TrEMBL record:
GO biological process: phosphorelay signal transduction system; regulation of DNA-templated transcription
Organism: Pedobacter chinensis
Identification of the protein by name: DNA-binding response regulator
Lineage per the UniProt record: Bacteria, Pseudomonadati, Bacteroidota, Sphingobacteriia, Sphingobacteriales
Coiled coil, from the record: none
Residue numbers bearing the 4-aspartylphosphate modification: D54
Any one GO molecular function term: DNA binding
Length: 216
């Protein structure tokens, strides 16, 4: 059972999300909030597996909510909602610690899939956002901060950012899925993170600040 909390200030869409989630018997709704402030004061009681968060809330934004909530919801995956695929706020939300996003207007199958994927350790990310993240890893290296990652581990991290699954990465690199898993474990250990989105976010933060890589 995947527990979910919702933070959405638009009543009609909030009610729609509830109906869509209730269809799936694998989901259980823990909390429903109309503002980031309300969620910050109560979601610590929910401790949901996945928090579905609107980016453009009326007062405190969904991005600011994620930044603050990560401190007491370290095991919650944050799935952002946005109306625009190329919205720069989506990328900022990922940097803040979100694990992915869905477009408002997505089908209930797409919403269910995105939530399940996040819960299973994946990341729901558009080609636009993935390209921005991969631009970091494909930049020229000069005095780079790589956290001691090997060339192969950097390749795996790059392919993870493209949204590839372990099996797809193993096929592309001609290595076994178990080897890919071991590389991922090493990457997470070296970066002191728990999943691939956190790994990409942390690598992004430090390498960007050190001017080692640049987004295209």
């Amino acid at each position: 059972m995947i527990s979910i909390s919702i933070v959405e200030d638009h009543e009609q869409y909030r009610n729609l999300l509830v109906k869509v989630l209730e269809i799936n018997k694998a989901f259980t709704i823990k909390g429903i909030y109309s503002s980031a402030e309300e969620a910050l004061s109560k979601m610590h009681l929910d401790k949901p597996d996945v928090a579905l968060v609107d980016i453009k809330l009326r007062s405190l934004s969904g991005i600011d909510f994620v930044k603050r909530a990560k401190s007491f919801l370290s095991f919650t995956q944050f799935l952002m909602c946005t109306s625009y695929q190329n919205d720069e706020n989506v990328f900022n939300a990922l940097k803040a610690g979100a694990s992915g996003y869905i477009l408002k207007g997505s089908s209930f199958e797409e919403i269910h899939s995105a939530i399940t994927e996040l819960h299973n350790g994946g990341a729901s990310m558009s080609p636009y956002i993935a390209k921005r993240v991969i631009g970091l890893l494909n930049g020229k290296q000069s005095n780079t901060t790589t956290f001691g990652l090997s060339e192969r581990e950097l390749e795996v991290l790059s392919l993870l950012g493209k949204g590839l699954l372990y099996k797809e990465i193993s096929d592309q690199l001609s290595i076994s899925p178990n080897t890919v898993k071991n590389h991922c474990k090493n990457i997470y250990k070296r970066l002191h993170v728990q999943n691939k989105v956190e790994a990409l976010n942390k690598f992004n933060h430090y390498t960007t600040n050190s001017n080692s890589y640049a987004f295209s």
